[in-house]
């Protein structure tokens, strides 16, 4: 699963950019494909900064640093 996603990820990784922003990069991959992607990502991430938005426990566990974002509750009368 996730053939289009894998192609898009490969293109992004091959650009050799110093910073990669990835939004849910393993969202449509099956568990085996996700593990394979993570192994390759670690190799390709050398000397790069990766910022990844993800709900994947596997991807989060493989990260060097995790920043958790929580929704901010807005008062009802704030006009937002």
From TrEMBL:
SUPFAM superfamilies: P-loop containing nucleoside triphosphate hydrolases
Classification via InterPro entries: ATPase_AAA_core, P-loop_NTPase, Type_1_exporter
UniProtKB keywords: ATP-binding, Nucleotide-binding
Coiled-coil ranges per UniProt: none
A GO MF term: ABC-type oligopeptide transporter activity
Keyword Nucleotide-binding attached: yes
Domain ATPase AAA-type core: 5-61
One Pfam family cited in the UniProt record for this chain: AAA_21
Keyword Nucleotide-binding among record annotations: yes
Protein name as annotated: ABC transporter ATP-binding protein
């Amino acid at each position: 699963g996730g053939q289009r996603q894998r192609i898009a990820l490969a293109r992004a990784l091959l650009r050799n950019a110093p910073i990669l922003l990835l939004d849910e990069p393993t969202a449509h991959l099956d568990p085996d494909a996700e593990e394979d992607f993570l192994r390759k990502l670690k190799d390709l991430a050398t000397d790069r900064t990766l910022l990844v938005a993800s709900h994947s426990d596997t991807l989060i566990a493989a990260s060097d640093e995790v920043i958790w974002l929580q929704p901010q509750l807005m008062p009802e009368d704030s006009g937002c």
